[in-house]
Amino acid sequence: MLIAQVCLAILAAIWFGYPAIMAVLARVRRAPRAREGELPSVSVILATRAEAGAIRRRVENLLEADYPGDLLEILVCVDHGAGEVAGLTEAVAEVSQRRGSTVRVVAGPAPGGKAVTVNAGVAEARGTILVFADTAQWFEGGAIRQLVGHLADARVGAASGRLLMAEETVPATLAEWYWRLERRLRRDEARVHSAVGVTGAIYAMRRELFVPFPAGLILDDLFTPMQLVLRGYRVGYVDEAIAREPRRFSLDEERRRKVRTLTGVWQLCRWMPGVLLPWRNPIWPQFIAHKLLRFTSPLLVLIGVGGMVGEALLAARAAAGGPVLAGVLLSAAAMVGLRPARRLVWELVHVNVALLQAAVNGVLGRWQVW
To answer: By 3-state DSSP, what share of the chain in percent is helix, strand and coil, each rounded to 5?
Structure first.
């Protein structure tokens, strides 16, 4: 029983203890504020494989930003595998004339993939600030201005916005609870020093600090902040810079997305080993606690829950024999049969399966996970 209790205590420390510590530390740090001043030019990098209609709607949303049109350009960077771009140029040209902003279409090089597509867009960018966006999400009007204001601090190399999921429910699903915890944790980490990761759908950085993404990179939203931290910059988090995610995902879709992002953590550790060295990485404790210790969860759950269940069954059998043991098993089956309990169990299973799949991918160096 002691081993089971220790495992569950470690599990609680990883998922709740570390965020609690960061929350306490963040309370003694003053939250950075956006600075007003002369606005810099901004290039929005929109890497996409979407169809022309979706891209046009996204460009319209970006052009509605509370930012001077003559200081804003949008680079629609089309993945090489997405087909022809000629018709897309015409589709966005009329949209750009409304605001006087520049909208350009950039064809990504072969063999394709987000990393090389983004690199092609940044190579064409003219803005002082780069803002990275995806097609599926939507920015609220002040998002770009808020990100830019946060980057006025020369110590800050990049800043992440806040992604709000569609119809965040009460009671929340496990995935929604996870994302709420992640948002709060990133905010607290940024107050203490730096957020370990940024939100890929909405973040910004100074163009002069951009390092081209390696081909095949899975997580640009982890590569970017960590390479900046290793170079002595800080990574901020801006609650007021909001993007909205209109889509809902099934359990299986969430698992596949989780496998991809967790595999990306393994990839980063192999491609950027400096993050694992405490004398190189100024936020080494945060990186270990936030990104790596979570991979021990499946083993801790197996030992902890399995040990407690085993002890309970043995105690029931010793106390009253077969009838009590049968009652315990029937009660457990009835609880799992309840819909909320069943959903929670399946969500936990999916999370732990994703952690295991990602660990296998990382050990084998298997990065093609879409």
So the answer is: 55, 15, 30
- Do 76 and 162 meet the contact criterion of CB atoms below 8 Å apart? no
- Helices then strands (H, E): number in the chain? 13, 8
For 149-162, write each residue's pLDDT tens digit: 999 989 999 999 99
In the numeric block, the tokens 């599926």 are attached to: 136
Residue 295: pLDDT band (50, 70, 90) is confident
Separation of alpha carbons 342 and 362, rounded Å? 30
Whose tokens are 């996409």? That residue is 48
Residue 97: exposure state from Cβ atoms within 10 A (0-12, 13-18, ≥19): exposed
Residue 160 in tokens: 């992440």
The pLDDT value given to residue 49: 86
Owner of token pair 């990133």: 186
Contact 48, 77 (CB under 8 A): yes
pLDDT in tens, 53-108: 888 889 999 999 999 988 999 999 988 766 555 566 666 666 666 666 788 888 88
CA distance 368 to 335: 39
What three-state secondary structure class fits 165?
A: strand
Please state the pTM of the whole predicted model. Answer: 0.85
How far is Cα 214 from Cα 209, in angstroms, rounded to an integer? 15
Give the E-state strand segments of the chain in sequence order. 42-48, 72-78, 102-107, 129-133, 138-139, 156-165, 202-206, 234-245
Asked if 107 and 175 touch (Cβ cutoff 8 Å), the reply is no
Q: What is the largest CA-CA distance in the chain?
A: 81
Query: In whole angstroms, what is the distance from residue 314 CA to residue 335 CA?
Result: 20
Is 129:148 a contact under the CB 8 Å cutoff?
yes
Burial class (CB within 10 angstroms; exposed 0-12, middle 13-18, buried 19+) of 164: middle
3 state DSSP class of 37 = coil
Q: In the numeric block, which tokens belong to residue 156?
A: 């800050």
